[in-house]
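Hi support team,

I'm opening this ticket because the web form for multi-chain structure prediction keeps timing out on my end. I have pasted the exact lines I submitted so you can reproduce it. The total is 425 residues across two entries, so I didn't expect it to be a heavy job. Is there a limit I'm missing, or should I split the entries? Thanks in advance, R.K.
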Amino acid sequence: MSAALATSELGKRYRRKWALSGCTLEIPAGRVAGLVGPNGAGKTTLLHLAVGLIEPSAGSIAVLGEEVAGTPAQLARVGFVAQETTLYASLSVADHLRLGAALNPRWDTDLANVRVARLGLDRAQRAGTLSGGQRAQLALTLAIAKRPDVLVLDEPVASLDPLARREFLQGLMEFTAEHTVTVVLSSHVVADLERVCDYVILLAQGRVQLRGDVDELLSTHRRLSGPRRDAARLPASQEVIEESHTDRQSTLLVRTEEPVIDPSWSVEEVSLEDVVLAYMGRPEVEEGLAGINR
Amino acid sequence: MIEFHLDSRSGVSPYMQVVQQVRHALRLGLLREGDQLPTVKDVVARLAINPNTVLKAYRELEHAGLVAARPGVGTFVTGSSLADPAISAHGPLRRELRGWIVKARHAGLDEESIEALFRDAVRSARIEGVA
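Hello R.K., no limit was hit. The queue was backed up. Here is the completed structure from your submission:
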């Protein structure tokens, strides 16, 4: 399957500081990809590069096999919901829909109307007086009624309360179920993405630390706990990602392709959050983070 | 029609939870031959989960011969192969287990210890190839 988004040694420098560097990745078409990482990891920079709001300082990025924002046709195929859901405060809901219809060649009027009706939005109400959840839903409506092939969302649920967060993700997932689309969304809260993403990219200190199919990551990582043991004495097939020891007990998070059969270990499955946090806690990543904060 | 629910603290992946809930419903006779599973769109809109998760779960159930997809119509239960032998054994096994739990309580074990012991026994039986 072809890549919806592909970067090679992509970098972005602001003055002397690299916000993103040596970033090489591919997001397969048709996936819902979660971009995770701590604040300041370069997530927003990468997404802004993907939608053409900024230009790379190094390397290259292609969306749907083409140069980003190279042509109007390419722009029409990419939808974007910015972190501060960008709406016009003094324009009404209906104004926004008219604007969307006028500006987007592939505008889906039915989809927009059905969504607005179902969300119970008052078409005459000004965007500035909508609740946070309603604003996010309107911004999502505008982005998906554009009928994009790639939909990019920057921290879409960060500012929403739990109920609005769930409703937003329900709307987003319903859209992906009905249309062929690649979604890339960022969040610094992994738990928000656990259910909706089938692909994950961990960005830290401006670099990709981990990426892959979520099911594959979950099936190849295990937490082992048992009597204290030196991690160096594990089978070669088990790569230790995270370890902690007390004087009697060892707890390890390992990556392994094979089942763990050693009966002295208690073996547990891990969540996506466990895996991501383990990789974020690796010494080389933490040292790098400390370097950035200095 | 069954409704799926997800336990985010169970440590079991959402896809596996969907598979297990269908198998569980078949085993208990809550789903029977000819019953339709919820559409992917319905599950996704209800649980706010990735459509591929539901598709993968349904595919696995199809491979296991428990359901069949009719393109454009939906996914239907094909057989209740899970129900028959298992369910008749449930009653006696449950009674024996109850007796065992009473014994464990008399021995001073609390619920957590009982569960830990049970899980450990299942695990070691698996390793020894008994179950």
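A quick check on our side: Chain B has two domains: 14-77, 84-127. Let us know if the file doesn't open in your viewer.
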